[in-house]
Amino acid sequence: MKARSAFVLTALGASVAALSLYSTPAFAAGNAWSVYTTDDNPGGRAEWYGAYSGTQERLGACDDQADGYRVVATVRWSGGSKTVTAANGAGTCVFTPSSWGLAEGTTVSVTACLRDGANGADKYCRTKSGLSA
Could you tell me the pTM of the whole model? Predict the structure, then answer.
């Protein structure tokens, strides 16, 4: 009975380990973090997915609340920046195209803001800085 239990536990552990290898997204090797807007019930967020060599960076703008604002996400680094806007209502996320080729160790700043209309002023902005990978 003890031998069978050990076999079942070993097989279960191997299955879980194998499953976790296949369910990991390509960007999981790099830094991934969220930046939420500063309003009292955050209406939006920026999603940053850094990358290690061979994988790709991504920036997302996610609208989390039906408050009439669009979410603007911007990533900046020495020598460049990318911006993406989610304006389709609560529950939507829009991502930038990938393949920027940032070098490992590049410091980036990611900002999430709410904007009233296409040409309104940005408000409730929050910025977080860290390494791209």
Answer: 0.73
